Amino acid sequence: xxxxxxxxxxxxxxxxxxxxxxxxxxxxxxxxxxxxxxxxxxxxxxxxxxxxxxxxxxxxxxxxxxxxxxxxxxxxxxxxxxxxxxxxxxxxxxxxxxxxxxxxxxxxxxxxxxxxxxxxxxxxxxxxxxxxxxxxxxxxxxxxxxxxxxxxxxxxxxxxxxxxxxxxxxxxxxxxxxxxxxxxxxxxxxxxxxxxxxxxxxxxxxxxxxxxxxxxxxxxxxxxxxxxxxxxxxxxxxxxxxxxxxxxxxxxxxxxxxxxxxxxxxxxxxxxxxxxxxxxxxxxxxxxxxxxxxxxxxxxxxxxxxxxxxxxxxxxxxxxxxxxxxxxxxxxxxxxxxxxxxxxxxxxxxxxxxxxxxxxxxxxxx
Length: 366
Prior knowledge:
By secondary structure, the chain is mainly beta.
């Protein structure tokens, strides 16, 4: 039974009425169900408070560094006719050379075996010449038409990357392309200004009755809680990106969400918190408190990644998990986490980017 279908205890209701918003401001998931936890092992990451679904590590998938550099963002694109899985990623490093941007290496198609455990092919996408990518950080698939929504952080110091932000700073943009690389919408300016390295960092999309809702997550800003933007892409106005709301979720100051996806089974949002090495489960709809008080669970993957990549005891002078850059869920509930190859100490100089696969572990009711 889902925690949100349980009746609210009378005592809890009295406390909420008495305490008002101050009580709700500390809202976390309240564990009242008695589901049996799954058998635990060192390869399972477990949510706290308890969740109905945890995730068990299954595979490390190596990506070719001659075609993919600094992958940043991940999205599930469905299955091909032969049953193989299609994932999309964007690269924020291979695109920029000393004097120009190479648009043939910024959006990449990853084709996996039907079970998602083996990489079968890598196909860089050639973009329409009218599209001028800069610093691509995020990607999502529009469920309405299968086209790709991409977040470009933009970096004013690079050629052709100047934006429209204040004082010459770069303003992050969104644009939309077809799976063949043709322009399908945008570019659209966002209010997110990149004044160093903190523009758009993750996006997620879900289908609603009025169209596709796009959720945009900004990278951390020193001393501030990151902002989330919710946009509407309506079939009636495909060239218009309408902002619905700007809000914050219950994240700490300086948090950085580098990947986001909506889970198919219950619609909850899964977020990567790169700085803390955590996977977050967020209920955007069922938690009391409106826009700014949203409930979440967290599961740490830090120790697991260290273990599986042979990094236990390795000391570096960089954030240990600055490399978790994107997350996607396939049609069977398996998760894929892409790791960039920008931090050499992680892999003892090995520049090969990785992708981590997890399978869902469902708790059984009593």
